[in-house]
Design brief:
9 helices, single chain, 6-stranded mixed sheet
Length: 252
Amino acid sequence: MCSFNGMNKALILTPCCKDKQESAISFQRRSEPVRGTQPLRDQLLREIKLTPEIANRRENQDGILNPSSRLTKALDLYTGQFYKAAGDSLRKMAEGRYNTIDVLIISAIYGLVKLDEGLKKYEVKMGDALHNGIKIYKFWQQQKLGHILGKYIEEHAVTHVWSLLPDSMPETPYNRVLNQLWEELRNSRVECYWVKLTPSQGSGTSYKRGQWLKAVLERVLDSTTKLLTGEPPPERFGEIPESSFYYQVLNR
C-alpha cells in the first residue's frame, strides 16, 4: 500500500481527552485538517445539533456549536494525564524535531487531528449515542475514518504505526474505530502495533502511556529505539517503574 523510499517513518496515534483548556489560547500558524475529514466533521456536527443530550452540554454550547468561539491549538487544548506526561515531547515533535515520526490525535468530534491544528472546545465521547441511536465510534467506523487514515499513511510513506489508543466500553472505544484500517493493512508492508500496559494502572493508564511516548521519543536517536525497525521498543523503562509494556500486532 505504501510507496517506500528507503526511509522508515513511524506514525503514533494518541487519544483526545476529557480535560481541556477552559479559555482559548491564541496562536498564529495552524495546519489544515487531514484530507477527507472536514466533510465528516461537518456531518457529525449536524447530527449533534439534533441530539439534545450532547448539544446542550455547556462545553459544546460554548465551543463547537458557537460560530464565534475561538480556536486553540490541539496541543494546548488537551490537558489530560496523557498530555501532562508527554506534552513537552509532543511540542518538540510539532516543532519538527523528529522528521521520521508523526503523531495524529483521534478525536470523538474531529476524527483525525494534527498536533498544531486549531480546534474548538467540546465535550463529546466515543461512546455517546446520537439522536438516531448510533454511537459516535460507530459513526466514524461507518464513515470509514480508517480508510481516510490509510490514505494518509500511503501519502506520507508511513512504515510503522503505533496505537496508544484505549479501547474500553462504554466511553473509550478508540482503537476499534480503526478496525477497517487494520484490515486494509493486513499483509501489507506496514507494521501496526498496539501499545498495552501491564499490569493495568486504572485511572493512571493514560499517564503511563504518555510516559512511554516521552521515553521512546527521548531515545529516538539511540540504537535501542525500535519504533522504526522490525523490533518493538523495550518492555520496561527505568523511568516508568512497576510497569511493563507489550506490543500487540494489529494487522496480522
